[in-house]
Specification:
Helices cover 37% and strands 22% of the residues. The strands form three sheets. It has a four-stranded mixed sheet, with helices on both faces. A two-stranded antiparallel sheet has the order 1-2. Strands 5-7 form a two-stranded parallel sheet. Helix 1 runs parallel beside helix 2.
């Protein structure tokens, strides 16, 4: 994924482009205001808006906690993907994050599977 000014070099996510799908993983343990959530959002949204990603796996395996602002970034990503005709699948959700999403009534809103392999399989079958 290149930009006209050079390489896409995100700080808060690591990603692997697999042709028709992309796997992204957060590299920070807490999606809170102590990190630059605005920058995190730009990095996530660039995958959709600038690079045309239509099948996206997002691993939350390293995320131990997220605030409402962090949840907001995930919701915005989900909406952007759907508006572009794409699909996003979240995986590797740790128990504390699952409890936060459940309390926020978002477990049923997001498409969540156990691991990246299951996420890739669900997107390839779509």
């Amino acid at each position: 994924m290149m930009t006209s000014s050079g390489e896409f070099d995100p700080v808060y996510i690591a990603f692997e482009d697999r042709g028709d799908l992309t796997i992204a993983e957060f590299v920070i343990p807490r999606l809170t205001e102590e990190f630059n959530l605005e920058q995190l959002g730009h990095e996530l949204f660039a995958l959709v808006e600038q690079y045309g990603c239509r099948k996206l796996v997002v691993s939350l395996g390293r995320v131990e906690y997220l605030t409402s602002s962090g949840i907001g970034k995930l919701i915005t990503l989900h909406r952007k993907m759907h508006r572009q005709g794409g699909q996003v699948v979240f995986c590797d959700i740790q128990k504390p994050v699952e409890e936060i999403l459940r309390a926020s009534k978002l477990i049923g809103y997001f498409r969540i599977v156990e691991n990246p392999a299951a996420a890739v399989e669900s997107l390839q079958g779509a």
